[in-house]
Design goal:
- The protein is of the alpha/beta class and 223 residues long.
- Helices cover 48% and strands 15% of the residues.
- A seven-stranded mixed beta sheet has the order 2-1-5-4-3-6-7, covered by helices on one side.
- It has ten helices and seven strands.
Length: 223
């Protein structure tokens, strides 16, 4: 799974466009095949478009949609729908690195970037220095970060937090890809993030680097 994730994140845009066209053609040609659900998942890739995936899924035969695999994918679509901009962000309560329960609601009143990552994820670790810069620039301006780890082991998670200088709040249930928050937010690849406003509503999904900084400057200009 980790290798597949890394390869997915490194696919050139042009190649991905070609692959997507091929995937869409195969989906359209195989509405009665349960394996077509996996093709729709690939179309979603790193940054899934709920409306597109839902439309493709609804085009499948009813028996496929009502299969076990279909029901699982439908739950994934529901998670994506529930985390669209303007929606109230699903609650998160997990243990922090000190073994204490901590909730997303504890940060209510701030803009919060929910950062889904893991110690074993190279793209996540490569992104962390830029995230540290963002945090340092905005941390005194009504902004915070909640790191949600997809780790399964405590020690590597704790070491990565320390080594990368991630001084914001961190939580995990140490369930890997079955992380309950990840399931609620429809996270199938990392790093991913969700930006939430002070009232707990979703603002945007997957803003990184300067795109994230620009959005925060826009939102926090009055603070």
């Amino acid at each position: 799974m980790r290798t597949i994730l890394i390869l997915l994140l490194l696919i050139p845009c042009f190649a991905f466009t070609q692959d997507k066209e091929e995937l869409l053609a195969r989906i359209e040609s195989n509405p009665h095949d349960i394996n077509t659900i996996s093709l729709i998942q690939k179309v979603g890739g790193y940054d899934p478009d709920y409306k597109e995936l839902d439309r493709l899924f609804r085009s499948l035969d009813r028996k496929v949609r009502r299969s076990t695999k279909g029901k699982i994918f439908d739950r994934y679509l529901t998670a994506l729908k529930n985390t669209l901009p303007g929606k109230q962000a699903p609650s998160i309560t997990q243990f922090d690195q000190h073994g204490e329960p901590y909730s997303l609601s504890d940060l209510k009143g701030n803009y919060v970037l929910i950062d889904f990552w893991a110690s074993w994820c190279p793209p996540c670790r490569e992104q962390n220095p830029k995230l540290v810069e963002t945090f340092n620039e905005f941390k005194d301006r009504n902004f915070d970060i909640l790191g949600v780890s997809f780790d399964r082991e405590y020690e590597p998670w704790l070491k990565a937090i320390k080594d990368d200088g991630l001084t914001w709040k961190h939580v995990s249930d140490l369930q890997g890809w079955d992380n309950s928050a990840g399931l609620a937010y429809g996270i199938k690849a990392i790093p991913q993030n969700i930006l939430v406003d002070p009232q707990g509503k979703v603002v945007a999904r997957n803003l990184h680097g300067e795109a994230l900084n620009e959005k925060l400057r826009e939102l926090l200009s009055a603070h």
